[in-house]
Amino acid sequence: MANPQHRLPENVPGDFFVDSSCIDCDTCTQLAPRIFHDHGDQCSVFHQPKTVDETRLAMMSLVACPTGSIGTTQKHNAHLGIDAFPLLLDENVYFCGFTSEASFGGWSYLVTRSASAGGNLLIDSPRYASQLVKRFDAMGGVREMLLSHKDDIADHELFRKRFDCSRVMHAADGAGRLGIERIIEGEEPVELDDDILAIPTPGHTRGHVVFLYRKKFLFTGDHLAWSPNRKTLTAFRSVAWYSWAEQIRSMEKLLAYDFEWVLPGHGDIHHDDAASMHQHLERCISWMKS
């Protein structure tokens, strides 16, 4: 729980606040950009909620915060935030909320599918919260977990035990050591089923993988995201822990694929038509090479 005695001085006066335990994962600034902003090394409230919708977004941010760094001085119905997750993004693709400190607030996603279509997919791991688990149950459980890389796996083992789901991960990120059921090797793309393609993209880590669903939704882990400042796709050189040169090469591989959504673990989501996304990707690669 956020501590009002540790309220950051950058917060505007009022009900909602962020305390000094904030790790600057930017989950709140993405969910509620009218309320929270990044003031440097941490986030704070720059506009107190005034409407029902703004209060709901602030409560969603409170629930999603991986470190419990968002608090209030007044009492609110917690279910305003809890019941909003998983949050529908488009078609049958949801943002899970309930981010985990173990993944530095990395975002995870749920794809709902009928049993005949292969069952529900969980892309990367959220925090194992009872409220979220109940929602997963109501939505058909989890049949398979797709893990993009080793530092966004959070509570994957708890979800595996709860839903008896199989996990997919690349060997080069320690999948064997983790007991992963379906291990990807090498750099060739792998068709996991009729709808999902796993594309190895080393760079951020040696075994990083992105997942392309229905040639429309690209789940990018820490490989690719949207830059609101540059207004195009971007990568993060400061966290290219394995190799920036390899990340550039991996990015060039993605030019062969059509997609309309970029759904990252860190960084901003973006949606556009496939042709525009291709242009943004070319621009990103040119910037990376420069």
Notes on the protein architecture:
This protein is an alpha+beta fold. Helix content is 22%, strand content 22%. It has helices at 27-31, 52-64, 79-82, 130-138, 156-163, 244-253, 274-289; strands at residues 16-18, 36-38, 43-45, 70-72, 87-90, 93-95, 109-111, 121-123, 144-146, 166-170, 182-184, 190-191, 196-200, 209-213, 217-221, 225-227, 232-234, 261-264, 270-271. Strand 8 (121-123), helix 4 and strand 9 form a beta-alpha-beta unit. The longest helix is centred in the last third of the chain and has 16 residues, at 274-289. The protein is globular, with a radius of gyration of 19 Å. The mean pLDDT is 97.
Q: Gist?
A:
By secondary structure, the protein is α+β, with helices and mostly antiparallel strands. Helices cover 22% and strands 22% of the residues. The protein is globular and about 55 Å long.
